[in-house]
Amino acid sequence: MDEDAKVYVISVAAELAGMHPQTLRQYDRLGLVRPGRTRGRGRRYSARDIQMLREVQRLSQDEGVNLAGIKRILELEAEVRAVRQQVEFLRTLLDPGRRVFTADPTGNVVADRRHPLAPQPAPGRRPRWVPRQLVAGPTPRRDG
């Protein structure tokens, strides 16, 4: 079954989570767990919602975190998940270890040989990107 399918009525969800239905209503009002709604505005919970209810209960009872703290924890966990997804997406765009640019000895950004074309500077302005082939002389080594 799909973990996100909103199939459980509040009484069943409360029993599965080991809570009173009124507690689920309070958590919904506070935004801790957002169940789906039927046309008649009845709440429908998913398996993922029930897992979240259990986590809220654990944080509250076992860790002693108040509901405002739990809400903040859940928000931060959601942000972390979103950032991780974004990082994974960005990793798919770039090959591991691939350079897009390098710098010459003076600190000017130069195009990498895999990206030989560089943006053209505005008229009358010094180029910020210089193709590597145009950089004069060998690159001195920096001993760290």
Automatic annotation (TrEMBL):
GO molecular function: DNA binding; DNA-binding transcription factor activity
InterPro entries to which the protein is assigned, alphabetical: DNA-bd_dom_put_sf, MerR-type_HTH_dom, MerR_fam
Keyword DNA-binding: yes
HTH merR-type domain segment(s): 7-76
CDD domains reported in the protein's UniProt record: HTH_HspR
SMART domains the record matches: HTH_MERR
UniProt entry tagged with the keyword NAD: no
Pfam families with a match to the protein in the record: MerR_1 (PF13411)
UniProt-annotated stretches for the region Disordered: 101-144
Keywords: DNA-binding, Stress response
NCBIfam families according to UniProt: HeatShock_HspR
Record protein name field: Transcriptional regulator
Source organism of the structure: Cellulomonas oligotrophica
